Amino acid sequence: MEQQKDYDEQQVIEQVASHLQDRFPDRDPGLIDEVAADTVHDFADAKVKDYVGPLAEHRARDILNHDAEAQPS
């Protein structure tokens, strides 16, 4: 039986933040880091860790998009 590789939450946070910074280059990097950390942490109890990054990134994009829409131009 194949053993599941170790899950490194900090590495996942960094990957999510990097993807978000590419997608939202005009957003505050501190905000992006915070949203990435929060959303990855939201999935910390997931049984299948392989999907934490994509799920967290999707949720973070929704948060950042919603936040951008709520801010006045």
Global geometry: elongated
In terms of DSSP E residues, the strand content is under 5%
pLDDT averaged over residues: 90
**Which structural class do you get from the secondary structure elements?**
mainly alpha
Distance between the termini: 55 Å
Q: Could you list the spans in which at least 5 consecutive residues all have pLDDT below 50?
A: none
Radius of gyration: 13 Å
Which range best describes the helical content: under 10%, 10-25%, 25-40%, 40-55%, 55-70% or over 70%?
Answer: 55-70%
Q: How many distinct folded domains?
A: 1
Largest sheet: none
SSE string: HHH
Count of alpha and pi helical runs: 3
Number of strands: 0
Structure characteristics:
66% helix; mainly alpha; 3 helices; 73 residues
Provide a quick synopsis of the model:
With 73 residues, this protein is mainly α.
Description:
- The protein contains three helices and no strands.
- The chain has 73 residues and is mainly α.
- The chain has one domain.
- It is elongated, with a radius of gyration of 13 Å.
Chain-wise SSE layout:
Blueprint: H1 9-23, H2 29-42, H3 52-70
